[in-house]
Amino acid sequence: MTMNTDQQLNDWRDSALQFEQQINRTVIGQQQAVRDIVVAVFARGHVLLEGNVGVGKTTLLRAIAQGLGGEYQRIEGTIDLMPADLIYYTYLNNDGRPCVDPGPLLMHGDKLATFFFNEINRARPQVHSLLLRVMAERSVNAFNKDYAFPHVQIFADRNRVEKEETFELPAAARDRFMMEISIITPDDDNILDELMFNPRFHDVDKLISEIDSGIIAYYQLNALAQTIQQTIEPSPALKRYALALWKASHRPADYGISLADVEMPQLIQAGASPRGMSYFIRAAKVRAWLENRTVLLPEDLQAVYQVTMAHRIFLNPMYAYRKDELMPALISGILNWIAAP
């Protein structure tokens, strides 16, 4: 690594930590979720958020968009939303003539940096399919032309309470998200007191405006992310450890992991995909960089394992109804039972 590259990574790290601090002052009580999202931003991965109503998911993403600069778009998932609604919309102008204008995906062209799909599970599978292409290829075809979004990062959220008129995301769609992050209500009384009684948190628009716009230059993130991945080096022992963590997501019984009231050979329908393993390592390297290291350590892998891998592990139907209980126990078992180098 040259001195110039070293200095560049140090400067970017300072900006990243400043970015993280400002978001934590805006959305309080969500430090782990904020750190995970910052990791995803610099690993260039898409993020699926899950949480109850009113826990700050939208405020958090608006804060991210403000800090990144670039253009921000949001769309609401509804039962009647169709793929074309993301690309264009039609209306009658003042003269009564039909007109077609670019939709939320096309409106800002290649300056689109943050796209937020609210309540994605309310949208039809056809809409999910279109979103998959945008996530995988950062492009879409419309009007016989391909439109590229080289800097876009997709965020989506699911309301975990309401299940009526919703469509569960298929495995292929969930696997495109680098992370699935839970946003939970803080349980610290001091934080709840601030949220309830401090007027600063009652005006979201003003709160968001306090974040420095463009702390992070969104159009430079792709090149920076590549530099980070090339700079952080894993040892041979760490590579073996990472491989064991991946294999354990397929065959936990082979590693001595057991859960109460579970026939372990029957637990897993499908483990994490190779794509998921790639995302896992990318996220771990960014975490090491944020910790001011050029060497990947076991704690980097452990810190991002759940958010990058848990949503890629599918339980057999006989255990799927216990997912909320079994998945955290399985992840803990994998991290506790597999010896780190």
Overall spatial form: globular
Annotation field: number of helices: 14
Per CATH, the superfamily of the largest domain is P-loop containing nucleotide triphosphate hydrolases
For the terminal residues, how far apart are their CA atoms? 25 Å
Please identify the structural class as seen in this structure.
alpha/beta
CATH architecture call of the largest domain: 3-Layer(aba) Sandwich
Helix content bin: 40-55%
Low-confidence stretches: none
Number of strand segments? 11
Note the beta-strand portion: 15-25%
Largest sheet report: 5 strands, parallel
**Radius of gyration, in angstroms, nearest whole number:** 21 Å
Number of domains: 2
**What is the CATH class name of the largest domain?**
Alpha Beta
Order of helices and strands: HHEHEHEEEHEEEHEHHHHEHHEHH
Topology-level CATH name of the largest domain: Rossmann fold
Indicate the mean pLDDT: 90
Describe the strand arrangement of the main beta sheet, using strand numbers: 2-5-8-1-9
Structure description:
This protein is an alpha/beta fold. It has 2 domains: 3-225, P-loop containing nucleotide triphosphate hydrolases (Rossmann fold, 3-Layer(aba) Sandwich), CATH 3.40.50; 232-337, Magnesium chelatase subunit I, C-Terminal domain (Helicase, Ruva Protein, domain 3). It is built from 14 helices and 11 strands. It has helices spanning 3-26, 31-43, 57-68, 84-87, 125-137, 171-176, 189-197, 204-209, 221-231, 236-248, 274-290, 298-309, 317-320, 323-337, and strands at residues 46-51, 71-76, 88-92, 98-102, 112-118, 139-142, 145-148, 153-159, 177-183, 268-270, 314-315. α1 (3-26) runs antiparallel to α2 (31-43), α1 (3-26) packs antiparallel against α3 (57-68) and α2 packs across α11 (274-290). The longest helix has 24 residues, at 3-26.
